[in-house]
Amino acid sequence: MARMEISVVIDRPIEEVFEFATNPENDTKWQSALLESGLVGDGPLAVGAQTREVRKFMGRRLESTSEITEYEPNAKLAFKSTSGPIQYHAQLLFEAVQGGTKLTLTGEADTAGFFKLAEGLVVRQFEKEMQAALASLKGILEGQT
Question: Which of 85, 92, 94, 120 has the greatest count of CB atoms below 10 A from its CB?
């Protein structure tokens, strides 16, 4: 099982960071490898809601769906994959800190097939992409981009 944890401090109020970062419609704005993202169906973002994404990763086009497993406004959003080539569980944790909001992304993935053979490379590449994504999110929310 591959694991990662990445954090960033964003100089914006927790409510603003949570609202932007947990809206699937915004994901393509701050995750450059993400081609499509959105809620499945018309319901609100809540426990049990499903999301769908299409991502380019290591030269491959990956489609997956996930289910929201925990939703605490201004505190936590957790989700797990329900389909796709990589089974994962991830969460975004939000914490008010001096000067803004600390956002921590944690995740665990169980790789298979091609991705299992190259698990170390897969983990490093995904961490690199997520570090860039969190830096992009910080730039957008702080008005730097």
Answer: 94
Q: What is the pLDDT of residues 94-106, one digit of tens each?
A: 999 998 999 999 9
Strand 50-57 and strand 60-72: pairing?
antiparallel
φ and ψ at residue 48, rounded to 5 degrees: 95, -20
Name the CA radius of gyration of the chain, rounded: 15
Question: How many residues in total does the chain contain?
Answer: 145
pLDDT tens, 24-48? 999 999 999 889 999 998 889 999 9
Residue in 8, 73, 63, 71 with CA at minimum distance from that of residue 38: 63
- Please say whether the beta carbons of 104 and 7 come within 8 A: yes
Write the CA distances from 123 to 6, 14, 81, 118, 143, integer angstroms: 12, 28, 17, 9, 30
Rounded to whole angstroms, the Cα distance separating 129 from 107 reads 13
Q: Which two tokens stand for residue 69?
A: 């497993």
Architecture of domain 2-141: 2-Layer Sandwich (3.30)
- CA–CA separation, 66 and 49 (whole Å): 8
